[in-house]
Amino acid sequence: MIFKNLKFFLLISYTLMAFNISANAKSAPESFADIAEKLMPSVVNISTTQTITTKANPFPFEFPPGSPFEEMFKEFNTPQERKATSLGSGFIIDKKGLVITNNHVVDSAENIFVRVNGGKEYNAKVIGADPLSDVAVLEIISEENFIPVKFGDSDKARIGDWVVAIGNPFGLGGTVTAGIISARNREIGLSRYEDYIQTDASINQGNSGGPLFNLEGDVIGINTAILSPSGGSSGIGFAIPSNSAKRIIDQLIEFGETKRGWLGVRIQEVSKEIAEVEKLDKPKGALVASVAEGSPSDKAGIKAGDIILEFDGKEVVTMKMLPKIVAKTNVGKSVIVKVWRNKKLISKKVILGRLESSSEFKANIKPEDKEKETSVINSLKITVRILTKQDIIERKLPAEIKGLVITKIENDSPLNYLEVNNIIVEVQKKKITNIKILKDIVSDVLQSDESNLLIAIYNNHNQRRYLGVRIK
User: Which domains does the chain have, with CATH numbers?
Assistant: First the structure.
């Protein structure tokens, strides 16, 4: 009798549990037509133009260095300017025409055009942009009123929730795709502060900067990147969470720039071995490798070797969490930082500085400055700069590639049959990760009995090629 009652009780409990799960789950809508019709007027197609200088070769072949035809046809291989265009997406957040998109969609653009709901096209200007988060705010130049959308709470978005993406893939405009949230808190190595929403809603070239909506029609993400060997959708797309983006957007609208909190420490992971030595119960926190002189941490007495376990009441579970938490904290705020030192937990009061004003920040963003970071390689008579993450995104290059982008080629350069924007990735079978390595290799060859360089490049069609170059 007891067994039967227990069996009945378990059956009832299971039925109630199944009912609750069913009641809480959101079923797929019969159609996305209503939500698409409501949101389409707020999604825009963005096109930009910029002038690019290239060395055009009118022939279907290239003359090798030292060829008698090289001098004869040199006049046909002079630098030329051309207009380049790019496409992206965005969405309106204010009736006066404020538009949100990715920074890489409008970076270096001379002209920006916004087409609303597949109809009228307007000129637009950049109000503010942040390369670190890849977010930009535009303003449509018009006296008209527009239909805005609002941000939702991305923290409430759950893995498995339905989402809708609307954008301008391949320039087709007004394209709606649907899918689910595949994962949260993704880091893929594209930007400094990463916390992407992963989705299988189809996202392609041209979707960048477009909105990712929940079924309530609120923006929970800004579509930013895809993982794809072909450049097309493979069901792995990434969006910046709205909660992360909104703070940046509000600052760009108010100040035209960002204001992130700054501690002034260089940190590293706490390994299992370090945790054992420091008598921590498990690997956690962020190990302070060094402290910038005169920084907020330096003034507060934080030292190299400290392990930061808590910041402003928030537990630092992993090293990667700390920069995100600090960046979201207001500049000038007084916070309590709990650190593990000499096997004891101690507290330090820190008044946060501003990251963008720090020498650390200015040093870190130099590789992203395409104009200031150029360097002349006199021995090759070319000018180069470091390949940036932004280049990799825009040109859809392999994520792991490192090298130098050619920005100028003199007519009498031994590399004058290459083109501006070609990327040098190897010389003498050695990887080129910075300008000094290239200079050193060329210098060594010039001082040796060798006369040639073996150079590997990516050309402007993203094809990898080896070239033999005589330099003496």
Answer: 26-259 (2.40.10.120), 261-360 (2.30.42.10), 378-470 (2.30.42.10)
